[in-house]
């Protein structure tokens, strides 16, 4: 049981560290995007409308 704890506990801490870093990076990119382009949902919707209007 102690061997399992010796593996699982550090892996959980490493996972939390990486997921926290990913979330911070995502928030940073999101705020940069909204500052320079406006809310991303508007950009995505306008891109989809342009894309769907093109003949395929």
Total domain units:
1
Class inferred from helices and paired strands? mainly alpha
Number of continuous helical runs: 2
Rg estimate, integer Å:
20 Å
Transmembrane segments: 6-27
Keywords: Membrane, Transmembrane, Transmembrane helix
Structural description of this entry:
- The protein has 56 residues and is an all-alpha fold.
- It has one domain.
- It contains two helices and no strands.
- The protein is elongated.
Write the layout of secondary structure elements.
Elements: H1 2-37, H2 40-53
Protein traits:
56 residues; mainly alpha; transmembrane helix; membrane; transmembrane
Summary, kept brief:
This protein is mainly alpha-helical and 56 residues long. The protein has helices at residues 2-37, 40-53.
């Amino acid at each position: 049981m102690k061997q399992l704890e010796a593996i699982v506990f550090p892996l959980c801490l490493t996972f939390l560290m990486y997921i926290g870093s990913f979330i911070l990076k995502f928030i940073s990119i999101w705020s940069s995007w909204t500052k320079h382009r406006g809310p991303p949902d508007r950009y995505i919707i306008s891109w989809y409308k342009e894309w769907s209007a093109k003949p395929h």
